[in-house]
């Protein structure tokens, strides 16, 4: 039998449940914009009555958050990927903007190279013109400053990445610490009846999501409601109530590269990290380094070929040309852990065969091995002391022990350090080393000054004149219809040869220092019949000679770097940078779409819908009013009863 | 599907932002006229555009080179024309000198003319182009290549260095003219065959090489360094006999070697041609017994020496017919030499003009190619732009509408 007081209790339970419901609604509307907030709702259960009688009201058994674990984890993963893609996209765009392409790349390195070679052609048109020479030097200077600027911009980009990396790692450390703290707090708050500390859970989930934005992670629930967090590569970040701090350290080779390590053990985790802000920064770093190496290779290949050409000709004072450009050579960075005292020096000796890229050179039991840092490809190089790889010659001195390693960066600083080494227009070596003047010849043999070549490329039978004679007038005198002597300026015989009926003959004069070792200036005699006494005089090219600067201008169309012309190398670099940017664009758009979809799915469960809240509010309001009415009726009943007594 | 209020608003905002970014991209394309704002728009196209721009640059400097080469060749050609005219005048002077049995005054006038000519010749040989370079100096372009020694002899101090320049992709042309071959290193007389009369000759005869009867034999003799000596001796009665002996070295000197002895001999008929060693030598005038002529097969002459010899031949009180004839032959040789140089330069010039047109066509093509890669299709982009702006406006209007939707505002 139900008493009036029970009626009052039942009404009261309805009243407070409706109030609780309205509290949930008002909390939901208050947190409509709170990140990581999951809409809450009350779970009501009926209070059981006796036997077959009616129930005794209601109670709020728990407040539940609308949470879908799967949808949430999708969002964490998607936002991780999205962050990495956004970072990569921003950096790829920045990198691409360093290589202008509008109007055929006007203002870029490609057009500066073209202008340089155009100026070389002007000198070839009139080598005696001081104005032409000055303009050529001006172009050389502006090209060098163009290289420095591009190299500098990429380096500045890398410095900015370093700063962002440090900030990301700090952020990661703060987040993992906070997650660990929540892991400690949450188990104490969990009720045995299944009531959950919703706001703490929301907070932890939000922190995990923030962590995911910094770094690709996986989270695995553990005992007592703790959440353990690992990097996507499997390294522990949060284990229950403990968090593990990460540190940014200089790399093993102290070369300006960074390594992400465990703070306590120093174990290198860099390869374990992907996605999130940090993953994006590390990936961008690799792209910038690759672009910097390629621009450096262009600078190094260009400078080396121009300097070589310059050293083959004569300047206005009749001296062999000095290098037009100077730049830093390859970096060799020994590992901190090297046991031996060995040192290496590296130089790009064959730009045409050179492939840009950094590598680690390690001594193994069987000899030196080079591992490409970008591709991981391993090449065995033997034991030295001279090692050669892709146009690079590495000289080993001292003792390198097995297990020692070095990082070789052939062109990292080349672009940034490129400067002109000549300020005097007359120092441009425009003239051929030798020009030929025939005597009063009777026969039909002609002589022609050819291009300088390596002495190893000379045909057999070439008469080689020693370097000591270089720069002196030399003469060729026929002693019979096909035999000739080569005479020094004092008319002593310094060589002799004979004319081949089909190929004629070659005379080569070795370059002295500072000319390149092994190079020779060549004079070709055509096949034919000479009369004894026919002669040719070889004299150093005068101020009007343009032979060497024509050679320099021709570098524009020769495959002087990595089997390509400088222009094609630059074009390929622009295409690479562009495709990276385009890939990053596409990836960022895709990641954005995936994230949006994941957020939609997650929000469709967990998000607050104000219209829904309004409807709920009306529902709870009416329930509250009804419950209040029950109490009012009960009171009337009670009053009636009192009046009746 | 249930949707959260935030998603409802932010989703529309995302669409708005996407439309805006699209419109701004198109706006930049219209403002710059370029489809490629950076390499990421079209990576392969960007690489190609940089390559094509390089090609345009190269064609531009090839065209510049071609123009400079044409100018250089033309200044050379115009000087050569003046030299040819001067040689013609000197040849006239020589002919007059040959006919002049005349008065000393007439001779002096001819000598003055020739001396004048010599000075002009040296000036022409030391001509400079508009850039101040000595045209005929070879590689030493800043020094006058022909120097007059105190003895009056003019010597060549330049070299035969030749400059080449690229006028089209993979095509270079020579642009320098060797002063040596124009002025100082000319095959003497007719094909290098030159005659010297012995100073002891008493007759009035002089020998003129008429031509070459066998070029292969002449070439062989030239290579062997053969010289011939024509000697006249008294024959039976009033006749003369001639003997042609061959040898190397200077006849009569210690180094003279008669390798084959007498080549031909016989009775001499006045005005007749003697054929030996592949050449045809006519004896004009009247030789006397004991007269000698030396015939060199491979002699060279310099224009300056020829004029100087002419001056001394005319000025000698009585003309030296052999020297005057030699001068005329040398002038003819020099003219032939200039003519062949002019022909070679002319064909270079024609070649340059040909490639200039070709450079122009290639450059136009390359520019069209660059435009294809990079220039916007304006009507297309404008249409896209207005489409994009319309879509943006629609999205904004829609956003303005939905942001008002709330059940709360309807519940009273």
How is the secondary structure organized here?
The complex is a heterodimer of chains A (645) and B (412).
Chain A lengths: L3 H27 L9 E7 L11 E8 L3 H29 L4 H4 L3 H17 L4 H60 L8 H17 L2 E5 L5 E5 L4 E4 L2 E2 L2 E5 L7 E5 L13 H37 L12 E2 L4 E4 L8 E6 L10 E6 L2 E6 L5 E5 L3 E4 L2 E6 L7 E5 L4 H4 L1 E2 L14 E4 L8 E3 L3 E2 L8 E3 L8 E5 L4 E5 L5 E6 L6 E6 L8 E7 L9 E5 L7 H8 L11 H41 L3 H35 L1
Parallel strand pairs in A: 22-26
Antiparallel strand pairs in A: 1-2, 3-4, 4-5, 5-6, 7-8, 9-18, 10-17, 11-16, 12-13, 12-17, 13-14, 15-16, 19-28, 20-27, 21-27, 23-24, 23-28, 24-25, 26-27
Helix pairs in contact in A: 1-11, 2-6, 2-7, 2-10, 4-5, 4-9, 4-10, 5-6, 5-7, 6-7, 7-9, 7-10
Chain B lengths: L4 H28 L10 H57 L4 H22 L20 E3 L5 E3 L7 E5 L2 E4 L4 H6 L1 E2 L6 E4 L8 E7 L2 H10 L1 E9 L5 E9 L8 E12 L4 E4 L2 E6 L7 E5 L3 E2 L1 H13 L5 H54 L3 H25 L4 H4 L2
Antiparallel strand pairs in B: 1-2, 3-4, 5-14, 6-13, 7-12, 8-9, 8-13, 9-10, 11-12
Helix pairs in contact in B: 1-8, 2-3, 2-6, 2-7, 3-6, 6-7
């Amino acid at each position: 039998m139900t008493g009036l007081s029970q009626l009052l209790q039942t009404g009261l339970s309805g009243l407070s449940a409706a109030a609780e419901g309205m509290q949930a609604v008002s909390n939901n509307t208050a947190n409509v914009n709170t990140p990581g907030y999951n809409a809450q709702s009350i779970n009501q259960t009926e209070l059981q009555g006796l036997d077959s009688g009616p129930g005794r009201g209601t109670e709020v058994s728990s407040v539940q958050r609308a949470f879908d674990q799967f949808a949430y984890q999708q969002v964490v993963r998607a936002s991780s990927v999205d962050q990495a893609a956004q970072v990569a996209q921003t950096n790829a765009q920045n990198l691409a903007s360093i290589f202008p392409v509008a109007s055929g790349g006007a203002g870029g390195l490609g057009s500066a190279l073209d202008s340089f070679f155009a100026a070389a052609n002007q000198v070839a048109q009139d080598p005696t013109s001081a104005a032409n020479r000055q303009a050529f030097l001006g172009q050389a200077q502006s090209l060098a400053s163009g290289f420095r600027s591009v190299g500098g911009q990429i380096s500045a980009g890398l410095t900015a990445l370093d700063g962002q990396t440090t900030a990301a790692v700090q952020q990661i450390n703060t987040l993992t610490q906070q997650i660990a703290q929540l892991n400690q707090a949450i188990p104490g708050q969990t009720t045995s009846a299944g009531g959950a500390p919703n706001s703490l859970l929301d907070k932890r989930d939000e922190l995990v999501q923030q962590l995911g934005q910094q770094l690709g992670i996986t989270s695995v629930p553990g005992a007592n409601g703790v959440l353990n967090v690992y990097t996507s590569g499997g390294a522990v970040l949060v284990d229950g109530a403990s968090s593990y701090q990460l540190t940014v350290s200089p790399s093993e080779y102290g070369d300006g590269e960074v390594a992400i390590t465990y703070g306590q053990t120093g174990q290198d985790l860099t390869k374990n990290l992907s996605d999130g802000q940090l993953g994006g920064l590390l990936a961008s770093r690799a792209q910038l380094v690759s672009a910097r190496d390629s621009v450096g290779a262009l600078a190094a290949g260009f400078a080396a070929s121009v300097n070589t050409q310059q050293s083959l000709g004569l300047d206005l004072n009749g001296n062999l040309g000095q290098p037009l450009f100077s730049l830093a050579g390859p970096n060799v960075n020994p590992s901190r852990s090297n046991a031996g005292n060995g040192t290496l020096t590296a130089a790009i000796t064959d730009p045409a065969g050179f492939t840009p890229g950094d590598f680690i050179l390690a001594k193994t039991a069987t000899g030196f091995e080079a591992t490409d840092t970008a591709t991981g490809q391993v090449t065995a190089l033997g034991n030295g002391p001279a090692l050669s790889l892709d146009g690079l010659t590495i000289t080993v001195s001292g003792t390198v022990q097995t297990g020692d390693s070095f990082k070789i960066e052939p062109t990292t600083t080349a672009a940034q350090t490129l400067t002109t080494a000549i300020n005097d227009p007359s120092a441009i070596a425009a003239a051929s080393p030798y020009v030929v003047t025939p005597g009063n010849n009777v026969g039909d043999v002609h002589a022609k000054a050819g291009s300088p070549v390596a002495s190893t490329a000379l045909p057999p039978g070439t008469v080689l004149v020693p370097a000591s004679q270089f720069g002196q007038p030399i003469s060729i005198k026929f002693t019979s219809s096909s035999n000739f002597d080569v005479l020094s300026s004092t008319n002593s015989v310094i060589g002799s040869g004979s004319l081949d009926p089909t190929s004629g003959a070659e005379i080569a004069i070795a370059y002295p220092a500072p000319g390149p070792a092994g190079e020779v200036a060549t004079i070709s005699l055509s096949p034919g019949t000479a009369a004894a006494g026919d002669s040719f005089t070889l004299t150093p090219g005068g101020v009007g000679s343009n032979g060497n600067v024509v050679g320099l201008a021709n570098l524009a169309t020769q495959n002087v770097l990595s089997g390509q012309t400088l222009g094609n190398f630059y074009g390929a670099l622009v295409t690479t940078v562009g495709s990276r940017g385009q890939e990053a664009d596409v990836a960022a758009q895709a990641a954005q779409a995936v994230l949006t979809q994941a957020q939609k799915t997650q929000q469709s469960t967990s998000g607050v819908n104000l219209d829904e809240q309004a409807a709920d509010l009306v529902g709870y309001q009416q329930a509250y009013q009804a419950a209040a009415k029950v109490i009012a009726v009960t009171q009337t009943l009670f009053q009636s009863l009192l009046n009746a007594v | 599907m249930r949707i959260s209020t935030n998603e409802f608003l932010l989703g529309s905002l995302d669409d708005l932002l996407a439309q805006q970014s699209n419109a701004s991209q198109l706006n930049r394309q219209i403002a710059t006229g370029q489809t490629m704002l950076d390499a990421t728009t079209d990576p392969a196209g960007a690489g190609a555009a940089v390559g094509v721009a390089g090609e345009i640059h190269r064609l531009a400097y090839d065209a510049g080179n071609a123009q400079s080469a044409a100018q250089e060749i033309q200044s050379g050609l115009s000087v050569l024309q003046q030299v040819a005219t001067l040689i013609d005048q000197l040849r006239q002077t020589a002919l007059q000198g040959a006919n002049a049995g005349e008065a000393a005054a007439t001779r002096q006038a001819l000598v003055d003319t020739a001396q004048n000519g010599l000075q002009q010749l040296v000036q022409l040989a030391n001509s400079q182009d508009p850039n101040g370079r000595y045209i005929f100096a070879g590689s030493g372009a800043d020094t006058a290549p022909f120097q007059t020694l105190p003895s009056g002899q003019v010597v060549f101090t330049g070299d035969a260095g030749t400059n080449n320049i690229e006028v089209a992709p993979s095509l270079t042309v020579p642009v320098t003219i060797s002063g040596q071959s124009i002025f100082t290193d000319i095959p003497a007389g007719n094909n290098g065959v030159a005659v010297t009369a012995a100073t002891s000759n008493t007759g009035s005869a002089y020998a003129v090489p008429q031509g070459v009867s066998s070029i292969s034999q002449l070439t062989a003799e030239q290579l062997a360094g053969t010289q011939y000596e024509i000697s006249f001796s008294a024959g039976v009665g009033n006749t003369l006999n001639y003997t042609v002996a061959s040898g190397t070295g200077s006849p009569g000197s210690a180094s003279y070697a008669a390798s084959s002895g007498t080549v031909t001999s016989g009775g001499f008929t006045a005005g007749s041609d003697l054929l030996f060693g592949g050449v045809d030598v006519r004896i004009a005038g009247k030789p006397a017994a004991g007269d000698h002529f030396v015939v060199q097969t491979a002699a060279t002459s310099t224009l300056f020496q020829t004029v100087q010899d002419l001056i001394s031949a005319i000025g000698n009180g009585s003309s030296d017919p052999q020297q005057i004839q030699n001068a005329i032959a040398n002038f003819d040789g020099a003219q032939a030499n200039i003519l062949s140089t002019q022909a070679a330069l002319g064909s270079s010039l024609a070649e340059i003009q040909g490639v200039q047109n070709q450079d122009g066509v290639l450059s136009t093509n390359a520019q069209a190619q660059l435009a294809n890669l990079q220039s916007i299709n304006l009507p297309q982009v404008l249409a896209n732009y207005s489409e994009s702006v319309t879509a943006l406006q629609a999205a904004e209007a829609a956003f303005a509408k939905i942001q008002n939707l709330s059940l709360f505002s309807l519940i009273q």
